[in-house]
Amino acid sequence: MNLQELITGTPCRLLAGQNDMEVTGLSSDSRKVTEGGAFVCISGTVSDGHKYLPDVIAKGAKVLFVEKSIAELQREGFLPGSGDDAEELAGLTILQITSGRTALAALSAAWFRHPADELTTIGVTGTKGKTTTTYMIREMLETAGKKCGLIGTVEVIIGEKHIPAVNTTPESYLVQQYFREMVDAGITHVVMEVSSQALMLSRVDGFTFDYGVFTNIEPDHIGPNEHTDFNQYLACKKRLFSQCRKGFFNADADHLSEMTDGVTCEVAYFGQKKNAGPALDYAAADPELFADGGSLGVRYQLSGKLTGPVTVHMPGGFSVHNSLAAICVAHSCGVTLEEINRALETVRVNGRVELMPVSDHFSVIIDYAHNAMGLESLLTTLKAYHPKRLVCLFGCGGNRDRARRFEMGEVSSKYADLTVVTSDNPRFEEPEAIIEDIIVGVKKADGAYVVIPDRKEAIEKTIASAEEGDVIVIAGKGHEDYQEIKGVKHHMDDHEMVMACKK
């Protein structure tokens, strides 16, 4: 691609060289630079991309996008020579940009020939519900005959190809690469989880979403390497609705007014409230929980722009809001209520309140809940089904905040009839030490508990002792298929261990 074509839409200033040349590649990763390629420097919180300039020049990079002046980079030893016209800079084109992350997003879109223009793009943001909502949207669109790709916490789906995910939302270059692969595969729609970190780090810059969805927001991801406080967290989530054409908002969520204030997109609402709050475009009334042969779900009456009964074959009140969010998008894309209900009958989300077909006499659910907030939400939801016993099996990760262990132990003991304390990813800690911390929390409430350190044994014994009408929750790992011990990831999949116990 010609450099002039590549930089169209990216504000930059030519510091050295000439911009009428062919570029063989684009990267912000020095390990992936190609001969004659372009390298984008990003000043990160952990590492400064400018320090890799000597490496990428040695590998043959010819175009450098930098955030600093040539003189400054030379003083720091990142560029050769001592002046703009130094002989050592011959053959290099250097362009100055304001932000490496913002530039990378725009450059990546151009490099892959703006694939988002050929897709209906859907972004889902929120503290909880993103993963489930994206899978529901994809299933509804696919049921209606619309080919839909997916980018999220669990995986990237491009047709029949499933790629395990590293981040909830990949870096902008990968986002654009996936978009281009989807277009080339004949895919017409894409739904993706959009994390607050992705919005803060410009990973979804460079294009405009057709639809944005807000599920909810609660204090989360606040810390030294994430967001400084809740206000920044909210502000980052809100950015999605300044780069989408239409936004669907959960009218029952806290902080709704802050999320909608000043947004530039067209706004629509979904929810259950009848009196307070904005008028609802998609409303759910008379939700009813149901249990059938080990399966748990919820049904309700839909009204507004689409009217009729809806049945969700996933448990809990939060399934009402997740399905409503998906219905907003699907209906806007031309999906009928009949197709929506067919999709909700078959949709499954790996490790997200996932019902396992183990027995018709009791229910087994695998879920990713790995903090007190998620576990409490899950257990209170399942308690509403009035199981004979609610059994919660979980452990906590090593080399993480110890407070999480106390909190999760207390939550499980408070809401579950029986807590089975086991191991998760001990990492570089001893599993017994982690379990001792969990038990400190368990003893703050009055629930019964047992300790079975080996996770496989814990699952086997818990399912073997299940009684008619029980609901068993296996929490913490969800879609993960490994156990990390002293820096080594060993294969271990809750799904496989559960299905081995099928009765």
Helix content: 25-40%
Strand order of the largest sheet: 9-8-7-10-6-11-12-13-14-15-16
What's the CATH H-level homologous superfamily of the largest domain? Answer: Mur-like, catalytic domain
Shape: globular
Mean pLDDT, to the nearest integer, reads 94
CATH topology of the largest domain: UDP-N-acetylmuramoyl-L-alanine:D-glutamate ligase
Distance between the termini: 59 Å
Kindly estimate the percentage of residues that lie in beta strands according to DSSP.
15-25%
Question: CATH class of the largest domain, please?
Answer: Alpha Beta
Search tags:
UDP-N-acetylmuramoyl-L-alanine:D-glutamate ligase, alpha/beta, globular, 6-stranded mixed sheet, Udp-n-acetylmuramoylalanyl-d-glutamate--2,6- Diaminopimelate Ligase, Chain: A, domain 1, Protein-Tyrosine Phosphatase, Chain A, 24% strand, 16 helices, 3 domains, 503 residues, 11-stranded mixed sheet
Question: How would you sum up this structure, described in words?
Answer:
The protein is of the alpha/beta class and 503 residues long. The protein has 3 domains: 3-110, MurE/MurF, N-terminal domain (Udp-n-acetylmuramoylalanyl-d-glutamate--2,6- Diaminopimelate Ligase, Chain: A, domain 1, 3-Layer(aba) Sandwich), CATH 3.40.1390.10; 114-346, UDP-N-acetylmuramoyl-L-alanine:D-glutamate ligase (3-Layer(aba) Sandwich), CATH 3.40.1190; 354-499, Protein-Tyrosine Phosphatase, Chain A. It has helices spanning 3-6, 53-58, 70-75, 100-111, 130-143, 172-184, 196-200, 230-238, 256-260, 318-332, 337-346, 372-383, 402-415, 431-442, 455-464, 494-499, and strands at residues 13-16, 26-27, 38-40, 63-66, 93-96, 120-125, 148-151, 155-158, 161-164, 189-193, 209-214, 244-250, 266-271, 282-292, 295-304, 308-312, 354-356, 363-367, 390-394, 418-421, 448-451, 471-475, 482-485, 488-491. The strands form 4 sheets. The chain has an 11-stranded mixed β-sheet with strand order 9-8-7-10-6-11-12-13-14-15-16, sandwiched between helices. The protein has a 6-stranded mixed β-sheet with strand order 17-18-22-19-20-21, with helices on both faces. Strands 1-5-4-3-2 form a 5-stranded mixed β-sheet, with helices on one face. A hairpin with a 2-residue loop joins strand 14 and strand 15. Helix 5 crosses helix 10, helix 5 packs across helix 11 (337-346) and helix 12 packs parallel to helix 13. The longest helix has 15 residues, at 318-332. The radius of gyration is 25 Å and the shape is globular. The chain starts with a helix and ends with a helix.
